[in-house]
Amino acid sequence: MDTKKQSINALRILAAEAIERANSGHPGIALGAAPTLYTLFTEHLQHNPKSPAYFGRDRFILSAGHGSSLLYSAFHLYGYGLTKEDLMCFRSLKSRTPGHPEHGITAGVETSTGPLGQGFANAVGFAVAEKMLAARFNKADAELINHYTYVLCGDGDMQEGITGEAASLAGTWKLGKLICLYDSNDITIEGSTDLAFTEDVGKRHEAYGWQVLRVNNGEDTEEISAAITLAKKETQKPSLIIVKTTIGYGSPKAGSEASHGAALGADALAKTKKALGWTAKPFEVPPDVTAHYKEITANLAAHEKAWNKRFNAYKTKYPEECEQFLTAAKGKAPDLTEIAELWKWPKKDIATRTACETVLNKLSDILPNLVGGSADLGPSNKTLLKGKDDFSHLTPHGSNIRFGVREHAMAAISNGIALHGGFYNYCATFLIFSDYLKHAVRMSALMGLNVTYIFSHDSIGVGEDGPTHQPVEQLLSLRSIPDAKVFRPADGKETAAAFAAALNGKGPTCIITSRQDLPHVDKTSKDALLGGYILLNSEKPVPDCIIMASGSELNLAVKAREILAVQGVDARVVSMPCMELFEAQTQKYKESVLPGSVRARIAVEAGSSLAWHRYTGLDGATVTMDAFGQSAPADILFTIYGFTAEKVAEVAKKTYRACLRKAADLPTGETDENV
Amino acid sequence: MDTKKQSINALRILAAEAIERANSGHPGIALGAAPTLYTLFTEHLQHNPKSPAYFGRDRFILSAGHGSSLLYSAFHLYGYGLTKEDLMCFRSLKSRTPGHPEHGITAGVETSTGPLGQGFANAVGFAVAEKMLAARFNKADAELINHYTYVLCGDGDMQEGITGEAASLAGTWKLGKLICLYDSNDITIEGSTDLAFTEDVGKRHEAYGWQVLRVNNGEDTEEISAAITLAKKETQKPSLIIVKTTIGYGSPKAGSEASHGAALGADALAKTKKALGWTAKPFEVPPDVTAHYKEITANLAAHEKAWNKRFNAYKTKYPEECEQFLTAAKGKAPDLTEIAELWKWPKKDIATRTACETVLNKLSDILPNLVGGSADLGPSNKTLLKGKDDFSHLTPHGSNIRFGVREHAMAAISNGIALHGGFYNYCATFLIFSDYLKHAVRMSALMGLNVTYIFSHDSIGVGEDGPTHQPVEQLLSLRSIPDAKVFRPADGKETAAAFAAALNGKGPTCIITSRQDLPHVDKTSKDALLGGYILLNSEKPVPDCIIMASGSELNLAVKAREILAVQGVDARVVSMPCMELFEAQTQKYKESVLPGSVRARIAVEAGSSLAWHRYTGLDGATVTMDAFGQSAPADILFTIYGFTAEKVAEVAKKTYRACLRKAADLPTGETDENV
Fold first, then answer.
1. How far is CA B302 from CA A79, B49, B51, B80, B310, in A?
2. What proportions of chain A, in percent to the nearest 5, are helix, strand and coil?
C-alpha cells in the first residue's frame, strides 16, 4: 500500500475510530470525502496549522458539518494541535471535538456548521468580504488581500433553498475565488438521491453563472487536484466541483445510507480496516504516514511568512490605509455613546425606520467599513447608505449589498462577512420575514457574531398589507434566541441606543423599527442601553402601578399615565426597549425599576404577550397582540385591538384595584387579563 | 380600441382605481400581468365563478399575492360575486378585498399569499394532491380527478429558496399538470433585477426537469395562450412559462420600481387612463366590456356540469370508492378518542418518536388517505408509513412523500395538499429545523389548515450532535404562533392525544417527540386533550406547591413529588402537554388545575422559560433551558443543566418556603429563580 493512500486512509480510520468510541457520529462522509479533503489540504489550501488564524489564509468551511470527525482527523494529522486524546474525546462534554464543528471551540473551524446550507452561505459571505477588502485596500504596487474560500458540501446542502439563494448571489457577484467541493455520493438519510433529488445540480449552477467542473472518481487525487487548479484559474465565476464519491468508502456499508449517521460497529470497523489494509493500533498511525504528513506540512508556514512580508511592505507604503485595515479587522467599533450627534434629535414625531436611516448614515460617515443591505427592501427598510456605491463585480468596493429577495441567504452571508472580519455589517428585511432567516440569527448568536439585523415594519402598524405581513409573534421568536438582543426603540435616541448595543456589544442585535411615525416621547435617554428604565416616575415613592412598554406603544403608556393621574392612580412608566439588556442588569437595578412589592404591572406591546409575563406575573395584565391582525389602515387596527391610551389606562386601573382587593384579602376576579 | 384590449384594460384600471382609493397597494404587477391573467381565465382555466369551489375545477394561485387588486378585478369581471363596492373597499377593515389574497375571506382565493414563495410551493402541493387522488381513484373506464394547477409568480417568488426547493421536487415528481406563469418584468423593489438577480431562471428550471417556455411579448394574448396550450400538452414535466412583461404598463411609471408598491397618484392614474384610452367613470366599465365578459363567462358552468356528470357516472360504477373519496374530500377524521387501540400502551419506557410511529401506523391502517413524509429524516423522525409505497411519478398512489432536505418547501407543499383536499397530511423534521419552515406553520395557522407537523429530537435530549442540533427556543417559537397547537407528549397515551388534537381539531398541530426513551409515567390519560391536567394530586386539598411539566420532564416532576413528600412538602403534578388547549379551557377548569391561591408553582421543561411565566408568575420558579446546549451524551446534559428529580425537588421546596415567608410577610430573597 502506498504511503499517500495510507495517509488518506489515516483520515478515514481516525474518524471512524473516534465515532466508534463516541458511539455516535457520521462515518459515511468521512470515509467518502477523505481524498477530497486530503487533496485540498495538501496541494491547494494556503494555511498554517501552527497559526490557524492569520488573516491572509485561505478559508475552508465544512458546510456538511456532520463530517466533523473527518475535519478533526485532518486537524490532528496536519498539526493543528488536536491530539490523539482529543479525537478519543469526540462528542464528549467540554471536548475540543464536539459533534459538529464549533467556531471558537476548535482552532481552524472558521464557522459552526451542521444545519444544512448555512455553511455554504457563510462561505459566500467569506468570499464577499475577501472581494470587498481586496477592492478597498489592495494597491497596484502593494497587494494585501488575496485568498480563496473553499467550502465542502454534501447532497443535503445542495437541496436546501438557502444554498440556491446564496449560489445565485455568488454568480451575480462573480465571486471567482469561491470554490465549492460538492461531495456527491448519491445518498441521503432516507436512501438514494433518486428518491427526492433528481435535478441536474451542475446545470443549475451554470444557470447561476458558476463554472461547473466534474471529478468522476473521488478516489483519484490527481483528478481532484486538477479540478481545483482549474477552479482557481477561473477568476470571474465561482466554481462548483462535483466530486463523485462513495459514502462509507471501504466499509461493508459503502454506498448505503446505513453508513451515514451511526457508528459502524466493531465488526464493520474491523472489516473496514482490513479492506483498507490498515493495521495500526486504535488512534495510532503508521510511521510512514506520520512522516508523510510531517513532510507535507513542513512548509505550510511559508504562506503566512509571505503574507506577513506583503503586509509589512503594504504598511510601509500605505501606513494610513494599513491602519484603517487593522482597525476594521479588529472589529472594535468606537463607543457610540460618546458620539454626541447620535443623541441629538428634534422634538418631533418620527418613524423609527427613519431614525434608523439617520443613525445608519451617520455611522457610515464615521465607519467606512460599515456595509450591509436588504433583501430587496432597502427603500422600505430605509437601510441604504447614501452616497455609497453598491457592492457588485464592477464596484467591489461598494458598501450597499443588494441581496435580492433572499432573506435566509442574506443572513447567513452576513454571518460569513462577520466571521471573515474587516467589516461592521448589517442586513435588513421586514420583521414578518425574520421568520425566513431566523435560523441564521440563531447561528449569529451561537457564535457571538456582531451582525446587526434591522427589521422594519413591525406590528399591526404595517396596516393595509394585512395579516400575512403583520408580525405578531416574531418579536417573541427573536427574543427566544439565547444570546441575541432584540431592541425595539421608541424614538431617535432609543434607536441610537440600539445601534450602540449592536456595535459595542457582543452577539447579534435585532433592531425593530416602525413603518409609521411615532408620537414624540419626552425623556427617553441613553438609559435605553440598560434595556429597561424608568421613563416617568410616580408621585409616590412606591407607585400604584407600573406600565411597561416598548417602541410604538411607549407613547400610549405616557398618555395613560396622565389619564390615570386625573383618576388618582399613580403610575410609573418603564420603557423596555430591550429585555435581554434589562435581564443582564444587577438584581438591585431591576428591583429599582420593577419593585417586587408592586404587583399591578401592565405591559403594553403590539406583539405576543408571552415575553411579558415574567414581568407582569399572575396579578398583572398585558395589552398585547396575541391574534393575527387584519388588513386595514394602521390607526384603525390600533384602536380595535385596544392600543389606545384610554384602554391602557382602563386596564391599569382595573389591575391596580384588583391588586388592592387581593392585598386586602377580598374576593378577586380573574387573575390575568388579556385585552 | 378593440373590446378585448379594453377588457384587459378594465382589469388594469379597476385595480389601479381600487389602489388609488385605498391609497395603498401594488399597481405595477396589476398593470403588467393583466393580459396573462386574462388569457388564462378566458381561454384555459376550467372554473365556474358561480360555484368557485367545485372539486373538479382547475386551481389558480396568485403566488405574487401583492397583485391582489388584479385578482379582485378579475373576480369582479368574471362574476365571482365581488361587487364594485367590494373593489371600492379594497384594503379596508372587514372587506372582502384585503391587502393580500386571504383564503376563506374571498371566494375563489385558493390560498392566502403574500410572503413570497409560499404560494408557489402551495401550488406544488395542489398538484401533488391532484396526482395522488387521480392515481388512487381514477379507473380505466371512469375518470374522477383531472385538473390543472396554475400559479402566477413574480421575480420575488423566483428568488426565494423555498421556490427552488419546491420546483426541484415538482421536477422529480414529474408534475405535468402544474403550470407556472412567471411574470418576468425585470424589476424588483430596489430596482432592476440586474442588481441581484442575473441568473438564467429558465435554464435553472430545465435543470430541475421542467419544460420551459418563453413568451416574449406579455401583451400578446395569442402568444401567451399558445404557450399555455403547449404547457398543458406536456404531461411528464411541470411547465414554466416565462412571460416578459412591463411593470406598471400604460402608466407614466411603466418599467420602473416606482410603480411597484404605492398608489399611482391621481395624476399618474389619469395619464394611465388616457394612455390606455379609458374613459369610463371610476369603478365602471364600458358596456362593450361588460358584454364581452358576459360572453366569455356564459359557458363557464359547462365544466362543472361535465365534472358532475363524470362524478355521477363514477358513483354509479364505483360506489365504494366514491364513498371513500367523499369521506376524504370532506376531511373529517373519525374521533380518535373512540379508537380504543390508540390508548392501550404497555407499561414501559418509550421514546415518543417511537410512540408517534406506532400511532401514525395505526392511523394509516384506518385512514387510507393519510399521507405525509419527512425532509429526509423519515427513519429518524420515525414517520414512515410501513407497507405503503412512496409517492413518485411511477407510484403516484403512494403515501410516503420523500421531501428531500427541503424543510420550508415541505411545509408549504403540505399546506397545498391540505388546501386541495382529499387527505389527512403530515410532515416531519427535527425540532431544531422547525426554524427553517416556521413561516409555513404560520400560514397553516392563518388559514386554519389541519396540517400535522411532527418534530422529533426535541431538547438537549439530542445529545452528542451538540448545540447546532439541540432545540432550546423552538418550542416557544412555535407556541408563539396564533391558532397553532404545540403538543409535547410524555408517553404513548399523550402521543395518541396529540394526534387526536391534530386530526379532530382545527388548525395546525405541532407534535414534539423525543429521540431518547422516556421513563414510564403512570396515570397519563386522554385528559391530555385538555392541554393541562392534574396527573398526581396533593394529599392536602390545597397543595403546597404545583409542579408543571411536559414531555421528557414529566417523569422528573413525578419523582420530585416523591422526594418532596418525604420532606413534608405536598406537591401536585400537572402534565401540560399543550398550553394552547389548556388556554382554551374554561376559567373554572384552569383554576381547578392551577388554583390562584397556590403561588409556589414550578415549571419543568427543557426549553425556553418564556412560555411558562404566565403560569409560574413572579413567585414561582422555572427549571428550564435558556442557554444553548453542548455536545455530550444526553444523560450528562440533563444532569448538568439541572434536569434531575433532586434539583426539581430542591427548587420546588425553596420556592414553597419563599412563598410561605412572603405570605407571613417576612423578608424574601429573589422573586424568581432560574435553574
1. 76, 11, 11, 16, 12
2. 45, 15, 40
- Residue B507: count other Cβ atoms within 10 Å of its Cβ: 21
Over residues A412-430, the pLDDT tens digits come to 999 999 999 999 999 999 9
- Convert the pLDDT of each residue in B337-387 to its tens digit: 999 999 999 999 999 999 999 999 999 999 999 999 999 999 999 999 999
Question: How far, in Å, CA of B560 to CA of B567, rounded?
Answer: 11
A-interface mutation test, from B26, B63, B102, B190, most A Cβ less than 10 A away: B190
| Closest residue in chain B to residue A608, using alpha carbons only | B480
**B162-197, pLDDT tens digit by residue?**
999 999 999 999 999 999 999 999 999 999 999 999
Q: Which among B112, B206, B376 has CB closest to A196?
A: B376
| Residue of chain A whose Cα is closest to the Cα of B167 | A199
Residue A547: predicted pLDDT: 98
Give me the residues of B, 8-47, that contact A with CB < 8 A: 22, 24-25
* Least CB–CB distance from B204: residue in A207, A436, A439: A207
**A contact residues 370-389, partner B, Cβ 8 Å cutoff:** 374, 376-380
B261 contacts on A by Cβ (under 8 Å) = 380
Distance separating alpha carbons of residues A571 and A649, to the nearest angstrom: 10
- Specify the higher pLDDT residue, B268 or B671: B268
Give the residue numbers of A marked as catalytic.
407
Distance, CA of B16 to CA of B269 (rounded, Å): 7
- What are the two backbone dihedrals, phi and then psi, of residue B350, each rounded to the nearest 5 degrees? -155, 140
- Whether A347 and chain B come into contact, CB under 8 Å, resolves to no
The single residue listed with the C-alpha cell 379594497 is B90
Cα torsion angle, B153, B157, B159, B160, sign: negative
Rounded Cα gap, residues A30 and A272, in angstroms = 13
Q: Are A391 and A402 in contact (CB under 8 A)?
A: yes
Q: What are the residues facing A330 on neighbouring strands?
A: none
Asked if B220 has any chain A CB less than 8 Å from its own CB, the reply is: no
CA distance A205 to A214: 12
Looking at residue A451, what DSSP letter applies? Answer: P
State the pairing for strand pair B191-192/B370-374. Answer: unpaired
ipTM attached to this prediction: 0.97
Which residue in A has a C-alpha nearest to residue B111's C-alpha?
Answer: A468
B65/B94 Cα distance (integer angstroms) = 18
d(CA B609, CA A338): 36
Of B376, B468, B596, the CB nearest to A446: B468
Q: Is A479 on the interface with B (CB under 8 A)?
A: yes
- Please name the residue of chain B whose CA is at the shortest distance from the CA of residue A640: B93
Task: Please give the grid coordinates belonging to residue B236.
Answer: 411528464
Which of B94, B403, B469 is the closest to A100 by Cβ?
Answer: B469
Neighbours of B147 (CB within 10 A): 22
Residue A203 and residue B207: Cβ atoms within 8 Å?
yes
pTM value is 0.98
Tell me the torsion sign for CA atoms A439, A444, A445, A450.
negative
- Radius of gyration, alpha carbons of chain A: 28
Q: Where are the beta strands (DSSP E) in B533-604?
A: 533-536, 545-549, 571-575, 601-604
**Looking at this protein, which amino acid is placed at residue B457?**
H
Find chain A residues with C-beta within 8 A of B403's C-beta: 196
Residue A603 to residues A253, A526, A643, Cα–Cα distance (Å): 58, 21, 11
Query: Three cell numbers at B666?
Result: 417576612
Strand-pairing partners, residue B401, are B373
Tell me which H or E stretch contains A370: strand A370-374
B102 touches chain A (CB under 8 A): yes
Could you tell me the three cell numbers for A540? 409616590
pLDDT, tens digit (0-9, with 9 covering 90-100), for B611-629 = 999 999 999 999 999 999 9
